[in-house]
C-alpha cells in the first residue's frame, strides 16, 4: 500500500511481543506496516503463523537482512537481548528511528550490562544515544530520540509504583522491597522446562533470587529519580497465567505520611498521565489485561509506618508492545493516546 503515512517494520514478528505489536499497529490510524520479519519462517504469511490475523495482516514474512532500512521510518525490534544490539549496530547509519524491546540499551554502561547479562556488548556507542523509554517519566527525551530502549516488564510496573515517592525525596534509602509476579508469556514464545505446562500449572514459585537482570534496571532508574544511588531487593515469581504482572512494593519513608497525604502525592504526580490509573483498592491483573494501563494503589500502613504500593500491568502491552507504540507516538509527534485506548479484557 502506498500512502504518505510513516512506514513501520516489526523485526521478530513471530514472537509474543512482535505479534502484539502487529495487533496494535494494524489498528493505529497514522502508520502503515511495511515489513514484518522472521528468520525461521521467512516466506510464510504472518497469518499462517498467527491465524488471528487471517484476512487482516496476510503479509509475507521477510528476513530482516533483505529489508531496506532507509525505506522505513520506525523499526520495532522484538528480538531477544544480545541479538538486538547486532541489528542496531548494522543499522547505525540508516535514517530511521528504532525502538528496541530488549534489554540491550536500557542500562547506563556496557560494563554494567556485562555484569548482569553475562555478555560483552558489541555496540557500546549506542549507550550514548539510547533513551530509556518510560513515557510517564521521560517524554521530553523520548520525543527527540532516534533510539529508544523500551523498559522491561517488571521494571515498568516497579518503577511506576514508587516513582512519585522517589522524585519527592520521600523514600528512606535502601528500604525498598519489590515482590513481583509475572504471567508465563514474559518468558517468550519458546517453551522450556520452567515453562512446561505441568511445571507451571497449579504451581507458583520464585526465581532469579538476587541475580535477576531487572534488579539493576530498577535500581538505575530509582537512582536517577531519587538523585542518589539506590539498592532494591527484587524477587520475581512465575504465575500460572498467560499474561499480567502484579508488583507489591514496600518501603519506609523519610517522614510519616497518612493515606490522604500519600494519595495526594500520587494524584499530583500522575495528573495528566492518561495510562496510569490510581485505584481506591488493590488492582488485579485482570483489570488491565489486553490494555496499556498501569493500575496503582498506594497504601499507607499506619501500624508499621510503611508504604505498600500495588501495581498491575499487562506484561505484553504496558510492559512491552503498547509501551513501544506509546514511545513511537511521542517520537513521531502524535497525540500520545493514538491507537492505545483499548479497554481491558475482562473476564
Ligand atoms: N514477553 C514479554 O512480556 C516481554 C518481552 N520483552 C523483551 O522483548 C523482546 C521480545 O520478547 P518476546 O516477544 O517475548 O520474545 P519471543 O521469544 O516470543 O520472540 C522473539 C522473536 O525473535 C526472533 N529471534 C530469535 N532469535 C533470533 C535471532 N538470533 N535472530 C533474529 N531473530 C531472532 C524469533 O523469531 P524468528 O525465529 O521467527 O525469527 C522470535 O519469535 C525480548 O528482548 C524480551 O526480553 C520485554 C518486556 C516484556
Ligand atoms: C516470566 C519471565 O520469564 N519473565 C522474563 C522477563 C520478561 C522480559 O521480557 O524482560 P526483558 O525484556 O528484560 O528480557 C524473565 O524473568 O526473564
Automatic annotation (TrEMBL):
Keyword Cytoplasm among record annotations: yes
Highest taxon in the source lineage: Bacteria
Keywords: Amino-acid biosynthesis, Arginine biosynthesis, Cytoplasm, NADP, Oxidoreductase
Source organism per UniProt: Belliella marina
UniProt xrefs under Gene3D superfamilies: Dihydrodipicolinate Reductase, domain 2, NAD(P)-binding Rossmann-like Domain
Pathway note: Amino-acid biosynthesis; L-arginine biosynthesis; N(2)-acetyl-L-ornithine from L-glutamate: step 3/4
Entry similarity comment: Belongs to the NAGSA dehydrogenase family. Type 1 subfamily.
Function according to Swiss-Prot or TrEMBL: Catalyzes the NADPH-dependent reduction of N-acetyl-5-glutamyl phosphate to yield N-acetyl-L-glutamate 5-semialdehyde.
The organism's taxonomic lineage, starting at the top: Bacteria, Pseudomonadati, Bacteroidota, Cytophagia, Cytophagales
Transmembrane segments: none
One Pfam family, short name: Semialdhyde_dh
GO molecular function, one term: N-acetyl-gamma-glutamyl-phosphate reductase activity
EC number: 1.2.1.38
Residue positions of the active site: 153
The protein, known as: N-acetyl-gamma-glutamyl-phosphate reductase
Residue ranges of every copy of the Semialdehyde dehydrogenase NAD-binding domain listed in the record: 7-145
Amino acid at each position: 500500500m502506498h500512502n504518505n503515512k510513516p512506514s513501520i517494520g516489526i523485526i521478530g514478528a513471530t514472537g509474543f511481543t512482535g505479534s502484539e505489536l502487529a495487533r496494535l499497529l494494524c489498528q493505529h490510524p497514522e502508520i502503515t506496516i511495511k515489513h514484518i520479519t522472521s528468520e525461521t519462517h521467512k516466506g510464510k504469511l504472518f497469518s499462517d503463523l498467527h491465524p488471528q490475523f487471517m484476512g487482516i495482516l496476510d503479509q509475507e514474512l521477510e528476513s530482516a537482512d533483505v529489508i531496506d532500512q532507509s525505506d522505513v521510518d520506525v523499526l520495532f525490534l522484538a528480538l531477544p537481548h544480545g541479538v538486538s544490539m547486532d541489528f542496531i549496530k548494522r543499522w547505525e547509519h540508516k535514517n530511521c528511528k528504532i525502538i528496541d524491546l530488549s534489554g540491550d540499551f536500557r542500562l547506563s554502561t556496557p560494563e554494567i550490562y556485562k555484569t548482569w547479562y553475562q555478555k560483552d556488548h558489541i555496540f557500546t556507542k549506542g549507550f550514548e544515544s539510547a533513551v530509556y523509554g518510560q513515557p510517564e517519566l521521560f517524554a521530553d527525551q523520548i520525543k527527540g530520540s532516534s533510539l529508544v530502549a523500551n523498559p522491561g516488564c517488571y521494571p515498568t510496573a516497579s518503577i511506576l509504583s514508587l516513582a512519585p515517592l522517589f522524585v519527592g525525596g520521600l523514600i528512606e534509602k535502601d528500604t525498598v522491597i519489590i515482590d513481583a509476579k509475572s504471567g508465563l508469556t514474559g518468558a517468550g514464545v519458546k517453551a522450556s522446562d520452567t515453562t512446561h505446562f505441568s511445571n507451571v500449572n497449579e504451581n507458583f514459585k520464585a526465581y532469579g533470587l538476587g541475580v535477576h537482570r531487572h534488579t539493576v534496571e530498577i535500581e538505575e532508574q530509582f537512582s536517577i529519580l531519587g538523585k542518589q544511588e539506590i539498592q532494591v531487593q527484587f524477587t520475581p515469581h512465575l504465575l500460572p497465567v498467560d499474561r499480567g504482572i502484579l508488583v507489591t512494593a514496600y518501603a519506609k519513608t523519610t517522614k510519616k505520611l497518612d493515606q490522604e497525604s500519600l494519595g495526594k502525592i500520587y494524584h499530583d504526580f500522575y495528573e495528566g498521565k492518561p495510562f496510569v490509573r490510581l485505584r481506591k483498592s488493590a488492582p488485579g491483573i485482570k483489570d488491565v489485561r489486553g490494555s496499556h494501563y498501569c493500575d496503582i494503589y498506594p497504601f499507607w500502613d499506619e501500624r508499621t509506618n510503611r508504604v505498600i504500593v500495588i501495581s498491575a500491568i499487562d506484561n505484553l502491552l504496558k510492559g512491552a508492545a503498547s509501551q513501544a507504540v506509546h514511545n513511537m507516538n511521542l517520537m513521531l509527534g502524535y497525540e500520545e493516546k493514538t491507537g492505545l485506548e483499548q479497554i481491558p479484557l475482562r473476564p
